[in-house]
Amino acid sequence: MIKMFLKTSSPLSLPLPPSLPPSLSQVREAAQALLLAELRRIGQSGRKDTIDAWALYLPQYVDMVSSPGTTTESSPQAPPPPDAQPVETKAPEEEMDVTDDDITAGCLSNLPPNAKKISNSYEERRKQATAIVLLGVIGAEFGAEIEPPKGLTRARTGGQAPEGFGLTSGGSSNYSLARHTCKALTFLLLQPPSPKLPPHSTIRRTAIDLIGRGFTVWEPYMDVSAVLMGLLELCADAEKQLANVTMGLPLNPPADSARSARHALSLIATARPPAFITTIAREVHRYNAAQANSQSQQNVHTTTLARAKTEILRVIDILIEKMPGDVVDLLVEVMDIIMYCIEGSLVKKKGLQECFPAICRFYMVGYCDRSHRIAVGARQGSVALYDVRTGKCQNIHGHKGPITAVSFAPDGRYLATYSNADSHISFWQMNIGLLGSIGMLNSAPQLRCIKTYQVPPVQPASPGSQNHLKLARLIWTSNRNVILMAHDGKEHRFMV
Hints:
Helices cover about 40% and strands about 10% of the residues. The protein is α+β, with helices and mostly antiparallel strands and about 500 residues long. Residues about 10-20, about 65-100, about 110-120, about 170 and about 435-440 have low confidence and may be disordered.
């Protein structure tokens, strides 16, 4: 059953016509369900016995791969792994197919020097691979989460977490197995390809799947930035790889890796939207800083970020659709990511609505076709103003609470901002140059607040976390007249 689970860690492949008998992938999916059902059936005591029996074989990996952009000075680098030791030749009577060797590849030869001495036999390597997968499944399904995942995520089994998979809070819980299992899974994802650990081996694909499934358990013990960049590297060319797959045929290993990584990214993003958004935004800022410094050399992670733009936008689109409240909380960071992923020339030519319509559903996002500026209202009461041509951003402060709506005047000379928290609407004047741009080229626009009005607060239609996203919007009827339209149809008219 474990072998079948190893071979089917990724989501089910393309569906087969109903006239065909059950495919191997369908059988493998059934094996996954049987394994989880058995782990639930044996209960907490049975899972404890299983953990006790297999924890001895869990490799004690150390942090050998650092987060992209970090230096080794902040944290001492682990000793380099010893040279691959000769593997014991199995007896002729032992049966070992290519798939079995693929499963166990990479599970032994990279242990640190101070690890327990373990036999290099094939059987021991099988036990190590089984321990990683079995403890990974138990941790992902039954381990304690640092906080419940948000949104509509997969159902998890409740009850007390198994010993070794507890929380870190309070200092009394035992989380050693969660940490060691996380390190093993992360190692298998990030370890560079080698003859003993091919780039698309079964054990690597299994680790990818378990990282996505149990991210809320592993998050405290992993380098989130390194993991996300590793997954993006695998699915950067997912569209091309999956497009070449013939309907009804099994996925080849590279396509299966891309599909597994894509699925893991979706699971991670929907389980922890702030972690995904802030991490990718940090990588974007690091990339932009490196590009601004002509002396810096582009590294593999910035290359990965550039190649994975389509995949990043796909995940952002999922978050906007499923978890808009979390996106609004970090709307400026989300716009930083979008501005990086979409070429400014394309936005200038087609407009933001056509390039990425999902972000335009928020009333606190506005785009000016004439000046090619994007305004984004933040939760802190500030407004981020982006220049599409240069990618530069300027922050303006004029409210004491979250921004409810923003909108540019048709001629681009005024920007209206409204905050229901402080019950004020403000108008900002912008200097328009001869070419239609705001201010001078490569300089910050000259902004000043010319008028502020107090308006009655708008009450949500009903209690709920999403109702504040649609409280009111701003509609310009001319270059100097605007309507504040509440969700209940009430209007407040203003003139600049």
